[in-house]
Amino acid sequence: MKWWKKSIHRYGGLQIREDDCSFVWQIPANERCEWVKKTDDCNLDSLIQYAEILFCTFTTEYPALFILGLLVFVLWLLYLFLILGTTADNFFCPSLSVIAAELHLSDNIAGVTILAFGNGAPDIFTSLVADDDEMVIMFTELIGAGIFVTAIIAGSIAIVSPFRISPKPFIRDCCFYIAAVCWITYISQDEIVHLWEGLSFIIFYLLFILTVVAMQFWDNKEERRKARIPALHDPEMLKTFLANQDNEPEVHLPVRSTAFSVKAKLDVAIAAEMANARARGESIEKENNDNESTTSQTDRPDNIYSEFIYDINPISKNDWKKSNLIMKIILVVRSPAMIILQLLIPVVNETAVKNGWSKLLNCIQLCITPTVALFKLDVWRVSFGPLPIVVLFFSLGLIIGVVLFLTTHKDKPPKYHNIFAFLGFMSAMLVVYSVANEVMAILQCIGFASGISDAMLGITLLAWGNSIGDLISNVTIARRGYPRMGYSACFGGPMFNTLLGLGLTWTISAFNHPNYQTKIRSSDMMPGCLAFLLCSLIASFIYLNIVGFIARRSYGFLLYSLYFTFIFINLLSEIHFIHPLGTDHHED
C-alpha cells in the first residue's frame, strides 16, 4: 500500500487535508473502516455508500481483496454508463422528437436545443450533480469528452464512410466552438467565476442558436427562389416537368413492433434526416444494409395482458435476432435495468407500431411514475393536512389510470397520447440525474482509493463512459449512409454540453454565494485539455479547407493521432514522468 499512499499526495497537484477522504491512507489499516464511517467527506451523496463498502467489506488489510473490490466498482461503473446510454437513446430521444414536433420547432431549432439536450443528457446531469469537490472531474470530463467526440468519433465517421462536408454549417459550428473554448480558457485562468461569467456561457449558446436560425431562414429563402418553376415555352416540356414532380419513390423506415428498441435513437435520427432530404428535394436511396420489412400490428399480441408482457420484455425478438454475440451479452446484462425503466418511463415513438401506445402499460405508468418521483425528489414525507403526499399522488394516478383504461382502445392510441412524451421526458430526466449522481460518487471513491487524480478520471473513465454511446450511434448512422448527420453532431453536441454544463453549474454555484462568485478547483491538466481541444478544432478547420471539405480517411487518422497524443501526454504527466502542459517546471 505504500505506492498508493505516496501517490495520493502527489497526483493532481492538490493538497490533501486531514478531513479529506483521501487522507484515509495515513490511517492505520485496521482503523480505516471506522475512520471512513465517521468522516463526512467519505459519506457520499448517493444511494450506495461506496467508500464504506470498499474499506469495510473489501478491507485494505488484504490487498488482493481490496483490488477485487476496486474491480467490482469499475464493473459497476461500466454498468451505470450502460444505463445512462440506454436511457438517453431508448427513452429520451424518441420522446424529445415528439415534443419538438408538438412545440412546432423547426428541425434546426430542435437539433440545437431539445434534441441536443437528449444526446447530451448524461454530460449535462453529470456536471449538475457535481459539488465543489468534484469540480475537477466535471471540468475535465466536459473538455475531455469534447476532444473524444471531435477527434475519435469524427475521425471514425471519416474512416468508415468518407464523404463531402457541407461547408457553411461546419464553419459555423467549428468557429463557435473555437470561440467558446477560448472564452472558457479566459474565464477559468484566475480560478474565480463571477455570476455574469457563468451566465455568459448560456448567452453564448443562445447566440449560436440565433445564428443557426438566421442561416436557416436565409437558406430557405434561397431554396424558395431556386425552386420556382422554370419558364418553359414548350407546353409538352412543362407538362412533363410537372408530372415528374411526384415521381420520386417514397422510402419508409421499418416500423418497430415495440417502442423500446436498440435502434430507437437511430430510427428517429434517420427519419428526421429523410424528411429533411425530401424537403431539400434530394433523392433518397433505399437502404441496403437493413432489410427489415415493415412490421405490422399483427406481430403484437392481441390480448391486452399478453401485450403488457410483450412490452415489458427487456429483450425484444427483433433486437435479439439482429444482434451479434457481443450485443446479445449486453442485452442480457442490461435486462434488469430495462424492466425497471420500461415500467417507469413512458415512450412515444413515431417509428413504432401505434407510436408506442401500450394501453395497460401506459395506465400503470400513470400510477407508479409520479409516486416514485416523490421519493427521488425527497418530498415523500410532505403531507397535506392528515393526507401524506405519497397517498395523494398514488390515488390521483390510480384514478387517472383507471379512467384512461376505460375510455381508450387497445389498438388505437388516444388523441392525447403525445402527452405521455412529456411525462416520459420528466421521468427519463430523473433517472439520468439519479444515475449520474451514482456515477460521480463511485468515480470519487475510485479516485481516492486508487490514487488516480480527479482530472485523469474525468479525461478517461467519465469522458469515455458518457461518449461511447455517441461513438456507436454516430458510426452506425454513417454506415447507414448518413455520414453528414453523424458528423454534424460531433461539433454542436459537445459545444452544447460544455457551455450548458459549465454555464449552469457555475451560475448556480455563484448565485448561491453572498458575493455572487465561486472559486473553481483547478488541476494541472486543465490547460493541456483546453489546448488539445483547440488543436483538434483548428486541425479540422485547416485540413478540410485545404482539401475542399472532403472528409477522407487520412482526416480520420490525423484526428486519431491527435487524441492518442493527448492521452499519452496526460498519462505521462499523471505518473509524473513529465510535467503537465501549461505548468512551470519545478520540483514537487
Protein described:
This protein has helices at residues 2-10, 32-38, 50-57, 63-102, 107-112, 114-129, 135-160, 167-188, 195-226, 235-243, 264-279, 304-312, 317-321, 325-333, 335-344, 359-376, 389-407, 419-450, 454-479, 483-511, 526-546, 553-574, and strands at 163-164, 192-194, 383-384, 387-388, 517-519, 550-551. It contains 22 helices and six strands. The model is unreliable at 1-14, 245-251 and 283-297 (pLDDT under 50). Strand 3 and strand 4 form a beta hairpin. With 588 residues, the protein is an all-alpha fold. The chain is globular. The longest helix is centred in the first third of the chain and has 40 residues, at 63-102. The protein has one domain: A middle domain of Talin 1, CATH 1.20.1420.30.
Query: What would you say the CATH architecture is?
Result: Up-down Bundle
Count of runs of 4 or more consecutive helical residues:
22
Low-confidence stretches: 1-14, 245-251, 283-297
Mean pLDDT: 80
Q: What's the helix-strand series?
A: HHHHHHHEHEHHHHHHHHEEHHHHEHEH
End-to-end distance, in Å?
Answer: 21 Å
User: For this entry, what is the oligomeric state of its chains?
Assistant: single chain
Keywords:
6 strands, CaCA_antiporter, globular, 66% helix, calcium, single chain, two-stranded antiparallel sheet, mainly alpha, Sodium/calcium exchanger membrane region domain-containing protein, calcium transport, disordered N terminus, 588 residues, two-stranded antiparallel ribbon, A middle domain of Talin 1, NCX_ion-bd_dom_sf
